[in-house]
Amino acid sequence: MTKMVDGCGNQCESAQLPGAGQRLEKMQGHWVLARAGKRVLRPGGLALTRRMIDALSISSDDRVVEFAPGMGVTARMVLRRNPVQYWGVERDAAAAARLESLLPGDATQIVQAQAEHSGLPDACASVVYGEAMLSMQTLQQKKRILSEARRLLAAGGKYGIHELCFRPDGISAAKRREIEAEMSTEIHVGVQPLCSSEWKQLFEQQGLKVIWCGEADLDFLEPRRILQDEGVLRCLKIVCNVLKDPMLRQRILAIRRIFRKHKEYLGAVSIVGLRVESAA
């Protein structure tokens, strides 16, 4: 696999970002944030991602599949644990090309495919995970992706997610529809989170026994969280990019307003399930 390097032999960070060629006012929200320089695009931030990775117990004995690795932040965290094999399944062509240039090692492979049709062999992995992608799928699509994760897992394998969730479990159907409609309009992609109990039920229905669950507040666009996730230098870069581009600033502030407006009803959840022999 060809890796792009700069003149000093370092891997380039300037590979074309996803969404290139699209108008900012029509671009999906997560790629708008990436355009601003944000690299951590997970609802619960790096802290919840780290907890998920620990719960998955990824080690040098594992074969790992990641659905929708996006900017590759979690992938690099996982690769530092030296798994035997890592596959990143990414449907966005620009994101896949960028990941190929950024992720090192002969044991790393980027597959351009949809998560529900990865094309990878049955039982090829001991760990499968995905972040911030199921929340943007219909219920039937969620089920297809979980079914694919189970297919890829060998017996005793683990599947992890890190997604948006509604709070509390008893939130009304009307409030859910209101939030989904407003978020989908602002982010330019359908958003359909589940309550924590519904995410767990989905796991159980697909033959995945829940063994761990963690939650966090949805504040990844607040200054404190951005600083924690991105670091000082990256924060300064984001601020400069946002100040320079009025449309970029407008889009990001609008997304943050939606999150703040519905803060009482939205959070982040991470769940790890164990593959059991019979699916419901």
Summarize the structure.
The chain is of the alpha/beta class and 280 residues long.
Walk me through what this model shows.
The protein is α/β, with parallel strands linked by helices and 280 residues long. 40% of the residues lie in helices and 20% in strands. The chain has helices at residues 29-36, 45-56, 73-79, 93-102, 139-152, 173-187, 196-205, 223-230, 232-244, 246-261; strands spanning 63-67, 85-89, 108-111, 125-131, 153-166, 194-195, 208-217, 266-275. Strands 1, 2, 3, 4, 5, 6, 7 and 8 form an 8-stranded mixed sheet that branches. Helix 6 (173-187) runs antiparallel to helix 10 and helix 9 (232-244) packs across helix 10 (246-261). Residues 1-15 have low confidence and may be disordered.
Give short descriptive properties of this protein.
single chain, disordered N terminus, 280 residues, 8 strands, alpha/beta, Rossmann fold
